[in-house]
Specification:
Its cofactor is pyridoxal 5'-phosphate. With 379 residues, the chain is an alpha/beta fold. The chain has 15 helices and 13 strands. It binds 4'-deoxy-4'-aminopyridoxal-5'-phosphate and glutamine.
Length: 379
Amino acid sequence: MESKLPHVGTSIFSKMTALANQHGALNLSQGFPEFDAPERLKLRLTQHVQAGMNQYAPSPGMPALQQQIALLAERKYGAQVDAAAQVTVTAGATEALFVAIQTLVRPGDEVIVFDPAYDSYAPAIELAGGRSVHIALRSPDYRIDWQQVAAAVTTKTRGIIINTPHNPSAKTLKAADMAALKALVAEHDLYVISDEVYEHITFDAQPHLSALRDPTLAARAMVVASFGKTFHCTGWKLGYCIAPEALTSEFRKIHQYVTFSCFTPAQLALADMLNEEPEHVDALADFYQHKRDLLIEALQSSRFTILPSEGSYFLLLDYSAISSLDDVGFCDYLVEAIGVAAIPLSVFYADGSSDKVIRLCFAKEDNTLLEAAKRLCQL
Ligand code: PMP
Ligand code: GLN
């Protein structure tokens, strides 16, 4: 049978984690926290399980969680979100992205994607019969040239996928980016899929510029978020999409045939957590900024060039002063030679190009970060 995704293999995240396990290496590759979810969240989950909340949730999500999500969007971004009409709880951001793409993209449509790009965007566009149009952003600043974006828009362009804070570059979009995006979207009648899974992890007191902050942009946007990143529970695979009512009703038609609904007791536990401990979300940026700074400080004596990390839990290192290997080869070498697993940047580019840059995930215990840095400083 002919493959529907002939270019797709096993994800780099699975590959590097398997390699890390095989070599007993420190795993700074796949992005997931080494520490546990908050105690209250785990307690509430078990309580809802024990209380018998173990049957299907309504397909769009448990109302208590939809409500808390809408309140969070209002508290953080001043957005007026109708919980019942605009919020859909999904199996992680991955499902939200997939369904948002199936909602918007028709055969022949083009979607603008910025490389380095998260790995799930392009296959989802391809499965919808669309074509991803890749615009490569480059080290060290990964800046978007909005004139280049405007030049890439054609009559077939349906939308643009943005991701801020960005995986893997750790850059955030600024007010000028959002203004340029808004102008482009209005001029060409486009939609935006805004991947904001690291929304609560921005550094140096910078605000997160959600597409939800601007009602005009929000009217054209499907905003995707992930509880896995915010509550250190990537294994729960819960996230959501906030979109205008008309788009949400199309989104839900697809969502109900992908999963129908998501894990009921965990939805209730997350609603409790948002309601009872809002300070968890507010403390997340400082929590990760400490880890970013610890890692950067510990790498000062290394021969890597450290690129700025403005948000997310990633840090990029340029290794061109250390090795002439390509980045995939360099990451293989790192695991084997010093027992540190990282992700090569070239896998995030449609054309596989590389600037001799690797990604480290610093959602790890301080001791893990210090030990990894010590090993990296030996090179
Ligand atoms: N988008 C980005 C940019 C991500 O980094 C991730 C997770 N690594 C996801 C989406 C998927 O999130 P989830 O685990 O909630 O499906
Ligand atoms: N998003 C995570 C990362 O960037 C990995 C998620 C996954 O393994 N699919 O590392």
